[in-house]
Amino acid sequence: MNVLDFVTIVLTGAGLVFFIAGTAGLLRFPDTHSRLHALTKADNLGLGLIALGLAFQSGSLYVIVKLALIWALAILAAATTSQLIARVALPAELRRQRGKNGLKSGSENETR
Fold first, then answer.
1. For the chain, what is the domain count?
2. Which residues contact 35 (CB under 8 A, 6 or more apart)?
3. pLDDT tens digits, residue range 16-39?
4. Does residue 28 lie within any of the structural domains?
5. What are the pLDDT digits (tens) for 82-94?
6. Which has fewest Cβ within 10 Å: 9, 27, 34, 39?
7. Structural domain boundaries enclosing 88
8. Closest Cα to residue 44, out of 13, 9, 79?
9. What is the DSSP letter of 58?
């Protein structure tokens, strides 16, 4: 095992740890926004570390550019998807909080 193999193992192992941390955040956090934050941040970093680790094993610049492009597209897709999910989840969470506090929707709450 040479140095490049060791660096690849360390980076992909660190990426796996971030994937597991993101999954734990998805399962553990109470609300949608916290879950999205944990999942997108940890998974993007995990994918970046795995792509970097694989870049050390690639033999050409073409493969490295493809790995970087895959990581960049995954970051853009995760950001867009989490933004859309957060926009849909916000009204539902507000309605749920109003129900917990015993508030009614409509003009009665606006005067309080």
1. 1
2. 25, 26, 29
3. 999 999 999 889 988 888 888 888
4. yes
5. 888 888 887 777 7
6. 27
7. 3-101
8. 79
9. -
